[in-house]
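Expect sequence, tokenised fold; for instance:
***
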Amino acid sequence: MMVVAGVLVVMTLVVMASGRVPPVLALGCCLAIAGLLRIASPEELFSGLSNSGVITVAGMLVIAKGVVRTGLVARVTWRLLSGVTTAGHALRRLIVPIGVMSSLINTTPIVAMLVPATRELEQSRRIPAREVLLPITHATTLAGSVTLIGTSSNLLIAGIAATAGVHIAMISFAPVALPVALAGWVVLLVAGPRMLSTGAISTQARPRDWRVEIPVSAHANAIGRTASALGVEQTQEFLLEAIWRRGRELPVSEPMTEGDTLVYAATEAGVVALWASPRFGQSPQKLYAATAGPTVRGTLRDIEDDGDLEVIAAQSSVPLRDTPVIPGEPVYVTCDSSEQLRDNDSLTLWQDAAGRAPQPGKTYIALAILAGVIVAASFNLVAVSLAAFAGALLMVVLGVLTPRSAVRALDWNVLFILAGSIGLGAIVTSSGLADEIANVVRFLSAGNLVLVIAVFALTTTILTNVTTNAAAASILTPIAISIAAEVGVDPVIVLALVATCISFTFLNPFSHQSNLMVMRPGGYSSAEFVRFGIPLLLVAVIAAAAVTYLLLVWRT
């Protein structure tokens, strides 16, 4: 049965590494076959569905969505990038604050915010986005390993370790992960712009033929400040043309007040960017691109009168209230839900253009919830899974997220991969395969501490780059605990080595979701990933092994 289990696990890992089949499907088939062959019991195979690590990941996904929903990440990113002149300058500004954020919330929304910000740098200041995106992406994955809640693989390791009686605290992995992250950041700062440079770039201006009218609400953080100071006066995508206040046109240098309407000339991408800005205190509504039916006549004001919605942009050079409706031509409208669009007789087609506008008024509530979860977990006031679950509920109860937004924050693909990976680990353990792998590790290391560290560092790095970090965590965690007990060293430090090396997803763009997010915007090829990742990987692996050795020697 152990041979069958070995073949099944290897085939699953190969299929997952190929990228031709969704990892969750490969894991699901593996669990089903293992169950039918009775390699492991159903309780073991599906134990991931109740694993505390998976529950914590789910809660932290909701909390991260709440923090991002306030526009905090966007505001911080744009503020950090104001005034930068080179890619190296941008990296020096971003790497520490973005790294700190990555150690507290999921890295995916952080990288998502960086993509439009770096595109704007490229368009307005000719700083190539490709010289910034990949280094910062790798910086976030390195920083995520520092805390328990910084990455899903850390939580998965902690959940599996808890079943073996090994407790992982909030910063248990920091003694290894933090020095490695700092060493990796130095490499990224030095090598990033140089290795990814493609010379001078040319930008072609796109016509700003859309008129956008953005109202400033009573809750806007723009009140009393100028558009120039906030970075919303002019970019490649939009230009502030006027400020209207009680029927009077004011210069764009005028500080904003409640009730002002900002009139922009923008590209179509600029329309979405302005709506997504947290500066104006927009109501928590979605933005839709809609078209009028063939029989509709009149102006855009008539469309608003025909339903509970507001037109904020159209291809026009005159005020929107005077812009005639052209059947089939798109306009951008905002409303509470698509049901209001269905009830509007003027509109025939529509699609989502952007999510709900950020709500900066909830920033302190979201940060307080995040801080409460961190404190509760750090001081063992409650289990981290319970703290994350309670924090997710508070995001909804206190109005930071709607119930629907909270549900949508749950990345079911990620959660099922984590749960399935725990089942994969159960197959390895129940079949006796884990013992055989441990015997191989014993043979290769011969009880030598240096060789034990080298074997785990290299094995983890290889496995995380050919499959997923969840699969590497589920397979290697029980083996690491077993070997640490035999060698007589602290299992938490060995697990910290595994957790840190799991973040070394520098060679395979498919090994981490953040890598895939920057592939197209940065124009990277798979060969470029490998070429850029090799020096970073070598430094990170050597640093991780060296720090682990020093810690283990010191503690023994």
Notes: Strands lie at 210-215, 238-245, 248-250, 261-266, 286-292, 310-314, 330-335, 347-354. The chain has a mean pLDDT of 86.
